[in-house]
Amino acid sequence: MVKSIGDEYTWARECLLDLKEDAIEIEHLVTDADSSAYKAALDLHNEGINNVEPENFLDTRHLSDHVRKGAKSDKTLLKVMPATTKLKRQKLLNNFSVDLTERCNKELALAYKFYAGDFFKVKNKISHTVDAIANCYMGNHARCRKNSFACKGFQGSWLKGRPFLQNTFKISSNNENLDLLRKQINKRLGSKVLDKTRLNMNTNFVEGFNRSLRRSLPSNVTFKKNMSGRAHAAAHSVNYGPGESILELCSALHCDIPVGSSAYKALKNIQKLTFCRKKHKQSVNYKVFEVKKGASYTNYTKNLAK
Ligand SMILES: [Zn+2]
């Protein structure tokens, strides 16, 4: 039977059974919110094949993306954006959705730091922080001083120096807007979601490795003889970095690349560039650029549609 790549349930079941053969049982399973992989793990437990009951966690990066996109496409939120035209409001909402997601993540990170990783204290405090954040975006910082980690009220407001929103950004203050903001913030900081992201895990490494594997073993080429070798080389390259990996592999085969030779320098250079690029992608400047690029692309497609 041909299985679809998207059939996560079957694949997860097969992987888990494979692990079971090596006497490994899964306790924590990190997935997307819409994944059926957890159902597979749960079924294996219910069928009595696995003894350990699995617990499902949400991938924090996908969750943040999901929250950001949810805010970005929220029609009611669009209406309350403080701008004069619909186009400007949409632009502002795009920026606001990025800022809101970062605010939630920042509050959470600072809370964990403050309580030295004590989840129950963090959860308790964050339940008050949700209101502080909502009020903060409406220009009321009274709660920030007590319940926010990222905003110090008027002395050091969260929006001061933020790359996505102006310092003067303010959603008009009323109960409907408060509820609206609260609803958005609870998608990341609500108590159930906090439980499901308690261990702060994501699947970035897995996805990074998958990309690398696909590069080494493209689906349009069949590597009859060295398929497993290429797969192992991909794993090695991800762990060590592309330059260091080749140096290590050569050294293991007793054909060391002489230090100072042009090949050696080139490989070191590749290694350095990869890490610089990685760092750059995590920087604020890059994210701002991405937002601007996204905005100009939207304009471009709109112009095409005209
Ligand atoms: Zn504030």
From TrEMBL:
It holds the Pfam family Mutator. InterPro entries: Mutator_transp_dom. It comes from the Eukaryota. It comes from Mytilus coruscus (Sea mussel). This is Mutator-like transposase domain-containing protein. Residues 4-151 form the Mutator-like transposase domain.
